[in-house]
């Protein structure tokens, strides 16, 4: 009798599990060690994980019910993860969801996803390309920062802003297409994209943050659209030694020196950064250079003073004869 009850319970549980798996969401993935992933942040999913297996060269995570959100750090530092397919039920990918997945080379993001959180793919150093679906309306800060192998990105017309540091440190990124839907580009958006050679900013963009293209050492051409009104920070082209062609609408003012009060156009600023010593966030190159000259003068005066005092100490008679007074 007891055995019959036990068997019935087992069959019932298996039936429930089968129904749940067949009706619930499933994430498929592959790993370089062909073992199932260790999910340290199961609470990051808004559906209960029923089963996580790896068979016949593919891993599968079964959920009870529909999975709509891959939350914060869901696959954080899963270094063996090489590819993953997200189900159509998912609408958002949270902050740091795939950060540190250093072996991840490809990912399929369905059209159901509308937002990518901050640092979603931070330091996914093996990721070579990504297609952002038309459903995405916002890309979080530093979403693809440090993706050193990323060579191309397609940004859909649905995106209205490119946040701070989104593609910062993507050293293999050679080109980027910015759609007409984008109205603003945040600070450091393309910072240190050392393989980027040219960029065209559409007419829809009205504001650009600071150091957007700083340290893009291969950048030679930038074309700003006529809608640009504000470049909010300094050193936008710092370290762009190959820059030879810049087109910018007339009258755009980059910044104002906090010491002398002089306003500089972007063309002036490029000149100061690349050819005339240096400048900082608040002061122009002339003011910084003046400080350098003053420090140099003070240094030499101190050296002369020390030398003359030493000479007087060791040669008092000669010093008096020459009329040299001690400081």
List the defining traits of the structure above:
single chain; 327 residues; alpha/beta; Leucine-rich repeat, LRR (right-handed beta-alpha superhelix); 2 domains; five-stranded mixed beta sheet; four-stranded parallel beta sheet; 21 strands; 21% strand
CATH class of the largest domain: Alpha Beta
Number of helices: 4
Strand content: 15-25%
Using the CA coordinates, give the radius of gyration: 30 Å
Q: Residue-averaged pLDDT, rounded?
A: 80
Oligomeric grouping of the chains: single chain
What structural category characterises the helix and strand content? Answer: alpha/beta
In total, how many beta strands? 21
Give the overall shape, derived from the CA principal axes: elongated
Estimated helix fraction = 10-25%
Query: How many separate structural domains?
Result: 2
The assigned CATH architecture of the largest domain is: Alpha-Beta Horseshoe
SSE pattern, N- to C-terminal = HEEEEEEEEEEEEEEEEEEEEEHHH
Q: Tell me the CATH topology of the largest domain.
A: Leucine-rich repeat, LRR (right-handed beta-alpha superhelix)
Q: Low-confidence stretches at least 5 residues in length (pLDDT < 50)? A: 15-21, 269-280, 321-327
Largest sheet: 5 strands, mixed
Distance between the termini: 111 Å
- What strand order characterises the main sheet? 2-3-1-5-7
Q: Please, what is the CATH homologous superfamily of the largest domain? A: Ribonuclease Inhibitor
């Amino acid at each position: 009798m007891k055995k019959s009850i036990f068997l019935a319970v087992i069959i019932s549980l298996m039936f429930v599990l089968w129904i749940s798996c067949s009706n619930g969401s499933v994430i498929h993935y592959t790993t370089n060690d062909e073992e199932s992933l260790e999910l340290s942040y199961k609470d990051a999913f808004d559906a209960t994980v029923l089963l996580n297996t790896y068979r016949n060269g593919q891993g599968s995570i079964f959920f009870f019910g529909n999975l709509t959100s891959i939350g914060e750090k869901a696959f954080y530092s899963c270094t063996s993860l090489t590819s993953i397919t997200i189900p159509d039920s998912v609408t958002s990918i949270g902050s740091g969801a795939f950060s540190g997945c250093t072996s991840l080379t490809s990912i399929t993001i369905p059209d159901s996803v509308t937002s990518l959180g901050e640092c979603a793919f931070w330091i996914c150093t093996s990721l070579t390309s990504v297609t952002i679906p038309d459903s995405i309306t916002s890309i979080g800060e530093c979403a693809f920062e440090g993706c050193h192998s990323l060579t191309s990105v397609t940004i859909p017309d649905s995106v209205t802003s490119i946040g701070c540091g989104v593609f910062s440190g993507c050293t293999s990124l050679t080109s980027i297409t910015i759609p007409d839907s984008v109205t603003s580009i945040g600070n450091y958006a393309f910072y240190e994209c050392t393989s980027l050679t040219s960029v065209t900013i559409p007419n829809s963009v009205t504001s650009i943050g600071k150091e957007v293209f700083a340290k893009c050492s291969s950048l030679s051409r930038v074309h700003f659209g006529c809608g640009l009104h504000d470049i909010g920070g300094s050193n936008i082209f710092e370290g762009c030694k190959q820059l030879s062609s810049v087109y910018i609408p007339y009258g755009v003012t980059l910044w104002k020196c906090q010491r002398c009060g002089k306003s500089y156009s972007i063309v002036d600023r490029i000149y100061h950064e690349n050819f005339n010593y240096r400048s900082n966030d608040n002061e122009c190159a002339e003011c910084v250079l003046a400080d350098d000259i003053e420090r140099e003068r003070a240094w030499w005066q101190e050296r002369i003073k020390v030398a003359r005092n030493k000479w007087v100490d060791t040669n008092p008679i000669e010093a008096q004869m020459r009329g040299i007074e001690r400081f």
